[in-house]
Amino acid sequence: MLKSKTLLEHKFSLRMKRKYMIFLFIRAIIILSFISFIGFTYYTYGLGNKIILEETIVGKKDYLDIVEYHNLSEKFHAIREEIRNLKQEIHASIVPQHKIKTFQTYIYQNKTGQNLSQEEITPLVISSNVHIFYYPWYKSEIFDGRYGHWNHRMLPNWKVKYERVQPPHKPPDDIGSNFYPKLGPYSSSDPKVLNKHMEQIKYSGAGVLAVSWYPPNLELENEEPVDNIMLKILDSAQNKSLQVTFHIEPFKNRSGENIVKVIKYIIDTYGSHKAFYRTLYNGKLLPLYYLYDSYQISSFEWSKALSHEGQFSLRNSKYDGIFLGLLARQDHMNHLAASNFDGFYTYFAIDGFEYGSTFRNWALISAEAKKLKLIFIPSIGPGYVDTRIRPWNDRNTRKRSNGQYYRAAFLAALEVKPKFLSITSFNEWHEGTQIEPAVPKTFGNYRYEDYLPRSEDFYLRLTQSFVKEFIQQLNNSRQIG
Asked: 53 in a domain, yes or no?
């Protein structure tokens, strides 16, 4: 009788405990639903952004995206604290140890119960088939003794014959950009800046920097020398397992003969560096070069360097490479083929600006490139705005739309199944194509644009998701092939 009574008490105790756990679970669901509603309300009406739920493009999972904290109410904090306490209370009994799933959010936990970072949940990837345009021309008063490029002058409208010359910008608060960098008006020569940039580029998933470069002493008027910091860039890139290629800008006296001299200088000076980029092409491991505004030189001049029968031919020598010209207009395709380029890129992050940068044309461009046996590298970017240096050019502004414009560009590129993808840009601040972190800032009556309601590093993370999807497509193509 005593045993039966004890057993009944034990069963009763288990039932009460089970009911109590169910009560706690229901209570948690109700409060979590309420906190989700409050969070959504704050996000919608701009009363403060605490949590943004977004879907990871590649991982096909929802994850918790912690972003900027902006003056949330004490009530919101109190509710979240109650959730945390309640979660600890029920975690050991009725919630699986490996994850707590609520609403559209996954909070992953390790064996100690501590929250794991997003990087631990979904490891970062890097692809040497993704190239990002990088600009090393910035100077700061603190590091270099003067500002360079941040004080960019207002460029005159070439369609207006007599236009009043505008004064240059005056950093540090007034800079030649519609956005303001998180690092402030920095120096490209600063090792700390370079290290930070390499960390961010690695985080984005782009494996190769296409560095904007002028040959020494051949820079165009008003351009900053950059060759003197190339070794710094290469060393910093190597430290982060990144590689570097050259985005060769138009330079003085550019010709077939001089381009050969420039390529030889690059190989003899930097070709042995471990971070110098080479890739397999037609059975050979070759460096790859981007040549900006290639259409400014006749195909006859380019052929002197790029044709096998050219007067100064680079082909089948230790200076051979993969040479990519710029496709802007439709007729540039014939120019590129006649010049003996190996392929081309589109650079401009402005859909509809030129034939080459128009997303809907990429399928046709890709088909034509295959006929001519040319490499097609589409260039994608998060948006475009340059009215702080070209105030008359607002018609070419392309709003970022919280990453939707960037996503549309990426999907258009993915559609043509390219082997390489280029990104415009990491830090071309003058034209507002950067994915480098930017922050809100006001100067006088002017308010700089920013990434809100997204976080400072939103475009780095978005790029990382694109790279993952791009790698998956490359892997699928190889399996099919």
From this structure: no
Task: Judge whether 248 lies within some domain.
Answer: yes
Residue 211 · residue 246 · CB < 8 Å: yes
Could you give the 3-state DSSP secondary structure of residue 380?
A: strand
Closest by CA position to 280, among listed 419, 373, 423: 419
Residue with the two structure tokens 């006929």: 371
Element (H, E) at 379: strand 379-380
Which H, E and C letters describe 196-224, residue by residue? Answer: HHHHHHHHHCEEEEEEEECCCCCCCCCCC
- The span from the CA of 42 to the CA of 69, in Å, is 11
Please tell me the distance from the alpha carbon of residue 426 to that of residue 247, in angstroms, as a whole number: 13
Give the end-to-end CA distance of the chain in Å, rounded to a whole number: 77
Report the distance separating Cα 441 and Cα 173, nearest Å.
Answer: 9
- pLDDT of 3 above 90: no
Rounded CA-CA distance 176/35 in Å is 42
Cα gap 119→59, rounded to integer Å = 12
**3-class SS of residue 135:** coil
Is position 48 within any domain? no
Angle between helices 362-371 and 332-339 (to 10 degrees): 30
Bridge partners (DSSP) of residue 344 are: 325, 376
- As for how many domains the chain has, the answer is 1
CA angle 128, 129, 134 (to 5 degrees): 75
Distance CA 334, CA 331 (A): 6
d(CA 66, CA 118): 10
Residue 361 belongs to a domain? yes
Q: What is the CATH number of the domain that holds 435?
A: 3.20.20.80
User: Which pTM does this prediction carry?
Assistant: 0.76
Reported as a single tens digit per residue, the pLDDT across 73-125 is 444 555 555 555 555 544 433 333 333 333 323 333 343 444 444 444 457 89
* Cα distance between residue 58 and residue 273, in whole Å: 34
Could you tell me the two tokens for 431? Answer: 């034209």
Q: Which residues contact 282 (CB under 8 A, 6 or more apart)?
A: none
365 CB burial (10 A radius; 0-12, 13-18, 19+): buried
Range of 314's domain?
128-479
Burial class, 333, CB count within 10 angstroms (exposed 0-12 / middle 13-18 / buried 19+): buried
